[in-house]
């Protein structure tokens, strides 16, 4: 024998709030808009160059010279890819961003306190 569950119709967010358990923390929408990762290059030098060799004619922007652990390099790559609106990867402690993005990558790295050569 099947039982029928009663479904509630929610007309507003206040109805939803009544159903949810209360929390001790007050969350504001601004929490989700803040950047979760801050990165400081501490004035270290990195090299930005455009490369085509071995890529079947496709252009990539390569950033080399990082002296961080692999997780930090991945984090920096994610920041650069989002800023440029392009794909990319990390290979052998170098970040590759798809396309000719040298100016944008250099600009963002300077914001992150790196010296770009």
Could you explain how this protein is built, in words?
- Strands 3-4-2-1-5 form a five-stranded mixed sheet, with helices on one face.
- Helix content is 31%, strand content 20%.
- A hairpin with a 2-residue loop joins β3 and β4.
- The mean pLDDT is 85.
- The chain has a domain of 72 residues: SUI1-like domain (Translation Initiation Factor Eif1, 2-Layer Sandwich), CATH 3.30.780.10.
- By secondary structure, it is α+β, with helices and mostly antiparallel strands.
Lateral strand order in the biggest sheet: 3-4-2-1-5
CATH architectural label of one domain = 2-Layer Sandwich
Please name the CATH topology of one domain: Translation Initiation Factor Eif1
Unreliable stretches covering 5 or more consecutive residues:
none
| Biggest pleated-sheet summary | 5 strands, mixed
By DSSP, the count of extended strands is: 5
- H/I helix tally: 4
CATH class of one domain, please? Answer: Alpha Beta
Gap between N and C termini: 74 Å
The CATH superfamily of one domain is SUI1-like domain
Order of helices and strands: HHEEHEEHE
Short description, anyone?
The chain has 117 residues and is α+β, with helices and mostly antiparallel strands.
SSE blueprint:
Blueprint (H helix, E strand, L loop, with lengths): L12 H7 L10 H4 L11 E7 L8 E5 L5 H15 L3 E4 L2 E5 L3 H10 L3 E2 L1
Parallel strand pairs: 1-5
Antiparallel strand pairs: 1-2, 2-4, 3-4
């Amino acid at each position: 024998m099947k039982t029928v569950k009663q479904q509630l119709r929610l007309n507003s967010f206040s109805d939803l709030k009544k159903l949810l358990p209360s929390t001790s923390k007050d969350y504001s929408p601004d929490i989700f808009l803040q950047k979760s990762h801050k990165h400081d290059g501490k004035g270290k030098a990195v090299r930005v160059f455009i490369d085509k060799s071995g890529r079947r004619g496709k252009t990539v922007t390569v950033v080399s010279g990082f002296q961080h652990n692999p997780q930090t390099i991945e984090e920096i790559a994610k920041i650069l890819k989002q800023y440029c609106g392009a794909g990319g990867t990390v290979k052998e402690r170098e970040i590759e961003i798809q396309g000719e993005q040298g100016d944008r990558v250099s600009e963002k790295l300077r914001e992150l306190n790196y010296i770009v050569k």
